Amino acid sequence: SSSIPLHVLQKLPTNLSEFDLSSNPIDCSCSQTDFILWIIQNQNILKQPENIFCKTLSPSSDFRATDFDIDSCVHKKRLTIVLSVFFVTVVVLLSFLVYRFQFYLQYCCILLRGYRSPDQQECSYDAFVIFSSYDEVWVMNELMENLENGVPPIQL
């Protein structure tokens, strides 16, 4: 496939009367729109512009370079830009929301991960009391008695 950079085409002599690209398969892809547009706009100096064909993967589907739909490339480019901007916007918005509400998200995760109904819990004790040896008599006689025999009973 042939392709001539646009800067080379722009430097062609102004007194050029004929330029022959016929029988050269042209790469008609969106990356070559400048070259194809130049072919379309300069048919007056091209020798047999109707014989300039686009080369495709299937030889039976080759078509004239002047019939290439450049607008489809513009639409693809616009779609790519729109989708890219949309994706970046969504990522930035989600990042902001996660940052702004990180406490609530962490709290929800902890609740969802750590919650078990009372039927599922297999605990022997409800509380653990740490006390000084100076308070041992009060803890054993008052605190334990009131908590273990209270309503609801708390197992220490």
List keywords for this structure.
single chain; 156 residues; two-stranded parallel sheet; two-stranded antiparallel ribbon; 4 strands; transmembrane helix
Number of distinct beta strands: 4
How many helical stretches? 5
User: How much of the sequence is in beta strands?
Assistant: 5-15%
Shape: rod-shaped
Radius of gyration over all CA atoms, rounded: 39 Å
Note the quaternary state here.
Answer: single chain
Spell out the helices and strands N to C: HEHEEEHHH
Arithmetic mean of pLDDT: 83
- Summed up, the domain count is 3
State the major sheet.
Answer: 2 strands, parallel
Helix content: 40-55%
Unreliable spans? none
Structural class: mainly alpha
The spatial strand order of the largest sheet comes to: 1-2
Question: First CA to last CA: what distance?
Answer: 85 Å
Please tell me about this protein's structure:
This protein has 156 residues and is mainly alpha-helical. The chain has 3 domains: 6-68, no CATH class; 72-114; 118-156, no CATH class. Helices cover 46% and strands 5% of the residues. The protein contains 5 helices and 4 strands, in the order αβαβββααα. It has helices at 6-10, 33-41, 70-100, 102-114, 136-148; strands at 19-20, 46-47, 53-54, 63-64. A two-stranded parallel sheet has the order 1-2. Strands 3-4 form a two-stranded antiparallel sheet. β1 (19-20), α2 and β2 form a beta-alpha-beta unit. The model has no long low-confidence stretch (mean pLDDT 83).
